[in-house]
């Protein structure tokens, strides 16, 4: 029995050490760097251009690191099957297929939503008990960019029974539009690998509209004079808009307090709006600030 227990403990030790070891705030400051997780290939938030990180979250990460007196180091996240997987891989454990890969100190652009943060899994246990989510810095929403010469004054989705609409494949708008009106829009829902590709087709006059996240549509439609981008048509969605914020490992509370203070100052003082404006995106205050 002792031999069996020793073997079990030996097998479990790497797992427990991977979720308990953490750089505290003092360690981060002494090291001189902050590891920041951002999504790969997700403009205008985070991407690489000429091998240089660019985007809203990159600018925010740089500003956070500078304010803490350290340099930023980027941890690029490739989306997994769920957000819980992304948080596990980036924040509290590390990737299951690469145990040697280091974790990030903070992760940007995660939902700031009490229902999600404190939700339970299929066993009735907390889904995100090892993660602390805080510091909302923007409100995102679903939107449609329209060519009003094709859609005219029609602001609902029924117009796409007759006109083509571009969607990023496997996105929420893809699933929603494909099933809308019993599937009557399917023949006019045109799939693209990226929102940028859909926007290029739109600019060439091949589509009447493109759907996606408002901020990404604003970025993708750059160069067009006064593009028509609104949320009209998505009124029946259960979640049309949501706040985005920051996540850290549960025991990184001192770091979280510092970051939360900085973000709150920038949201209230206008610095956050300036970051978004530099990328052609309109800043929307999170509900934490608009509902006060």
Automatic annotation (TrEMBL):
Signal peptide: 1-22
Subcellular localization(s) per the UniProt record: Cell envelope
Principal localisation: other
Entry GO terms, CC: cell envelope
Keyword Ion transport among record annotations: no
Protein name, as recorded: Transporter substrate-binding domain-containing protein
Keywords noted in UniProt: Signal
């Amino acid at each position: 029995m002792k031999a069996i227990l020793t073997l079990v403990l030996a097998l479990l030790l790497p797992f427990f050490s991977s979720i308990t070891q953490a750089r505290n705030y003092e360690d981060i400051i002494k090291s001189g760097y902050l590891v920041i997780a951002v999504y790969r290939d997700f403009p205008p938030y985070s991407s690489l251009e000429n091998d240089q990180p660019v985007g809203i979250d990159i600018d925010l990460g740089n500003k956070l690191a500078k304010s803490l007196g350290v340099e930023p180091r980027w941890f690029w996240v490739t989306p997994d099957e769920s957000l819980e997987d992304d948080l596990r891989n980036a924040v509290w454990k590390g990737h299951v297929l690469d145990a040697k890969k280091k974790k990030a100190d903070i992760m940007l652009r995660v939902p700031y939503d009490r229902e999600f943060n404190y939700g339970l899994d299929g066993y009735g246990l907390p889904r995100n008990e090892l993660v602390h989510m805080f510091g909302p810095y923007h409100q995102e929403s679903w939107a449609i960019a329209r060519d009003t010469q094709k859609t005219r004054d029609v602001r609902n989705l029924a117009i796409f029974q007759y006109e083509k609409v571009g969607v990023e494949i496997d996105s929420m708008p893809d699933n929603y539009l494909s099933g809308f009106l019993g599937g009557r829009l399917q023949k006019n829902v045109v799939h693209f690998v990226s929102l940028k590709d859909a926007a290029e087709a739109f600019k060439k006059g091949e589509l009447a509209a493109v759907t996606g996240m408002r901020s990404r549509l604003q970025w993708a439609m750059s160069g067009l004079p006064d593009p028509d981008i609104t949320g009209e048509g998505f009124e029946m969605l259960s979640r049309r808009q949501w706040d985005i914020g920051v996540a850290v490992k549960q025991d990184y509370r001192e770091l979280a307090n510092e970051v939360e203070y900085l973000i709150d100052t920038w949201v209230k003082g206008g610095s956050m709006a300036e970051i978004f404006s530099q990328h052609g995106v309109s800043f929307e205050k999170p509900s934490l600030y608009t509902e006060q």
